[in-house]
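Bumping my old thread because nobody answered last time. Still need a sequence for this structure:
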């Protein structure tokens, strides 16, 4: 076995344009004629990967013959015309071993996949699920023969590995390859069974797409898991909450007051868990890219009144007042349920972060073809360096305030954006915070600067 390192340059047809003596010797031992084509199977697999992905690829591979096996670190750098530059360094050498031939694996995609695909040895698309392609905005005919990366943006795992590349290098199946569908930006997970030729060489993959792996959700939550989560937890939680509220509200003279307090705590904890389940499901839908929202005419004034009624008990418990909101109908374009979800979140935050005796104020106005709803509190405010962070996943403005998962504002902003609007904050430390939900006005004739606000000015 030749020791040291090698360098070589191949053209688009894998013909050796130039090579040093070390590479020539290795290639000859693999039955490649000197000055002919590439004969090293493991190197050839890396070359196909690099060409298919159009990025440099480096891996440790085994190059062997009848005398010895060597572990080589090989780097392949493609150019835009299909030529590649090779560089290899020998890491370890050991006696050769007789390897059993690789079995030919069936050409069936992995089970339970949402949709399937096939690629050849050059990572070019040979087949695609037509219905799924259309659902993601992909032309199934146009992508045939195109690089796999035309369909997906592949992601490196937390350990720095990419399962698809590792599987190609070792001619084996893979699973858990995180990716994003280019056309729809949906986050997915890929798995595939390797396809081998008669000699056991790599001939492509038959793969499947699993939806619901959210790109910012690295803990393996999937759409199917979240659906089961909601179904299996909501029913028992609803029962727990209903029973606890029944006990706490019952007029039972013989009931120890402590037990009534326990029931109130149980109901409160159940509602918190139920809200967390809903947040996780919403977050997963957002990250997966298939969150659906309606575009109807929504009366923001009516939404605020309903939202205020929903959080009235919470405000009373904290000694916070929601100032009366006087106004006529103000029509925005959006999804009523989602707008109410945002408003309840903003009102709830304003209540939680307000001091006892504080007042939460609401103001709505038309401006620049939008309806803007502003909810302000008299709390400690939000420092400038935290105003972007509070809209991130699992971020909270003040951890000293109990409750909250850190998902509310993240979800609220993404919901606003999905409806064609925005959610912003203005605040200074010690002077409270004002959150503004802006949505497209439902009527093109909306007054440009007309304000409608609560009767008591701030």
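Sorry it took so long. Here it is:
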């Amino acid at each position: 076995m030749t020791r040291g390192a090698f360098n070589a340059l191949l053209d688009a047809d894998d013909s050796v344009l130039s090579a040093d003596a070390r590479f020539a010797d290795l290639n000859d031992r693999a039955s490649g004629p000197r000055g002919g084509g590439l004969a090293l199977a493991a190197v050839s697999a890396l070359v196909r990967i690099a060409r298919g992905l159009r990025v440099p690829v480096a891996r440790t591979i085994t190059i062997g013959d009848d005398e010895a096996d060597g572990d080589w670190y090989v780097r392949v750098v493609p150019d835009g015309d299909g030529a590649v530059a090779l560089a290899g360094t020998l890491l370890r050498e050991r006696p050769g071993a007789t390897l059993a031939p690789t079995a030919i694996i069936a050409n069936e995609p992995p089970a339970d996949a949402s949709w399937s695909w096939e690629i050849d040895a050059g990572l070019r698309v040979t087949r695609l699920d037509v219905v799924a392609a259309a659902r993601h905005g992909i032309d199934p005919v146009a992508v045939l023969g195109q690089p796999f990366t035309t369909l997906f943006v592949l992601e490196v795992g937390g350990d720095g590995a990419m399962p698809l590349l590792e599987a190609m290098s070792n001619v084996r199946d893979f699973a858990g390859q995180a990716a994003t569908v280019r056309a729809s930006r949906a986050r997915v997970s890929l798995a595939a069974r390797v396809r081998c030729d008669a000699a056991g060489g790599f001939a492509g993959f038959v793969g499947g797409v699993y939806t619901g792996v959210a790109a910012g959700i690295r803990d393996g939550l999937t759409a199917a898991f979240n659906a089961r989560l909601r179904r299996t937890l909501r029913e028992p939680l609803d029962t727990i909450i209903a029973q606890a509220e029944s006990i706490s509200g019952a007029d039972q003279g013989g009931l120890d007051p402590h037990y009534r307090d326990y029931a109130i705590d149980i109901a409160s904890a159940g509602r918190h868990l139920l809200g967390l389940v809903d947040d996780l499901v919403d977050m997963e839908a957002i990250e997966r890219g298939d969150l659906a929202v309606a575009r109807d005419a929504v009366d923001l004034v009516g939404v605020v009144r309903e939202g205020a009624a929903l959080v009235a008990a919470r405000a009373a418990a904290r000694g916070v007042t929601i100032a009366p909101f006087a106004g006529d109908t103000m029509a925005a374009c959006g999804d009523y349920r989602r707008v109410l979800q945002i408003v309840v979140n903003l009102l709830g935050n304003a209540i939680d972060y307000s001091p006892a005796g504080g007042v939460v104020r609401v103001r709505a106005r038309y401006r620049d073809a939008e309806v803007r709803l502003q909810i302000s509190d008299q709390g400690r405010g939000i420092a400038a360096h935290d105003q972007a962070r509070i809209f991130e996943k699992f971020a909270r403005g003040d951890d000293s305030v109990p409750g909250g998962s850190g998902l509310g504002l993240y979800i609220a902003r993404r919901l606003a954006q999905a409806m064609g609007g925005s959610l912003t904050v203005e605040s200074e430390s010690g002077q409270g915070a004002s959150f503004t939900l802006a949505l497209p006005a439902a009527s093109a004739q909306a007054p440009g600067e007309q304000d409608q606000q609560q009767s008591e000015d701030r």
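The two ends are 84 Å apart (CA to CA). Let me know if any region looks off to you.
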